[in-house]
C-alpha cells in the first residue's frame, strides 16, 4: 500500500517494526487436522477407561467392549460398540445407546435390551434383560455360545 505521495516506506516500516518487536514466546500455534485431534482424544479416553478395567492382581478384567445391534434405532447404522464395566446395567446401556444414536430426548424406559443367543443347529433364543442386569458380566461369565445384544422398542 502506498501513501498519496507515492511513498510506501512508512507503511512497510510500521509492519516491519511490529513484526520484529513482538516478544518471543514459547507459545506456538499450529494448524492441525481436527478429525485427527478428535480421534486421538477419543483414543486417549478409551485407553484411560480400559486401564481402569484391567485387573492389577492378575484376576479377570472388570470391563471391556460390547457390540450392541441397534437396527431398531437406526437402519443405516446396524451396531455401536460400547466400552462398559461388568457392573454397568442394561438400563445404563440403553441410555448410552440412545445417546450414541443421537436420540438424547428419547425416554429410555420405552426401550429394552435383548440378549440373542445363537447355537449351531438350534433356533436363536431371545431374552429381555431387566434394567438391573449387567450384559457384559453375562457375556463374560457365559459359555462359548454366541450372544448378540439388541435394542428393541
Helices and strands, with pairings:
Elements: H1 9-21, H2 34-53, E1 63-69, E2 79-85, H3 90-100, E3 112-118, E4 125-128, H4 135-141, E5 146-152
Parallel strand pairs: 1-5
Antiparallel strand pairs: 1-2, 3-4, 3-5
Q: Main sheet: which strands, in order across?
A: 2-1-5-3-4
CATH topology of the domain at 61-152: Ubiquitin-like (UB roll)
Quaternary structure classification: single chain
What would you call the shape?
A: elongated
CATH architecture of the domain at 61-152: Roll
Major sheet: 5 strands, mixed
Q: Report the CATH C-level class of the domain at 61-152.
A: Alpha Beta
Pfam family, one: RA
Biased composition (Polar residues): 23-33
GO molecular function, one term: cell adhesion molecule binding
Biased composition (Basic and acidic residues): 1-19
Task: Please sum up the structure shown.
Helix content is 33%, strand content 21%. It has 153 residues and is an alpha+beta fold.
Describe the structure.
The chain has 153 residues and is an alpha+beta fold. The chain has a domain at 61-152: Ubiquitin-like (UB roll) (Roll). The chain is built from four helices and five strands; from the N terminus they run ααββαββαβ. The protein has a five-stranded mixed sheet with strand order 2-1-5-3-4. The protein is elongated, with a radius of gyration of 27 Å. The mean pLDDT is 76.
Amino acid at each position: 500500500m502506498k501513501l498519496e505521495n507515492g511513498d510506501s516506506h512508512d507503511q512497510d516500516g510500521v509492519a516491519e517494526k511490529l513484526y520484529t518487536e513482538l516478544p518471543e514466546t514459547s507459545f506456538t500455534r499450529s494448524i492441525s487436522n481436527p478429525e485427527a485431534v478428535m480421534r486421538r482424544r477419543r483414543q486417549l479416553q478409551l485407553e484411560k477407561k480400559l486401564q481402569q478395567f484391567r485387573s492389577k492382581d492378575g484376576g479377570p478384567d472388570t470391563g471391556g467392549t460390547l457390540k450392541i445391534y441397534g437396527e431398531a434405532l437406526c437402519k443405516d447404522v446396524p451396531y455401536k460398540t460400547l466400552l462398559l464395566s461388568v457392573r454397568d446395567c442394561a438400563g445404563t446401556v440403553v441410555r448410552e445407546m440412545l445417546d450414541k444414536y443421537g436420540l438424547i430426548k428419547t425416554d429410555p424406559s420405552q426401550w429394552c435390551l435383548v440378549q440373542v443367543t445363537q447355537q449351531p443347529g438350534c433356533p436363536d433364543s431371545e431374552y429381555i434383560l431387566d434394567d438391573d442386569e449387567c450384559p457384559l458380566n453375562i457375556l463374560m461369565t457365559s459359555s462359548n455360545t454366541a450372544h448378540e445384544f439388541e435394542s428393541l422398542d
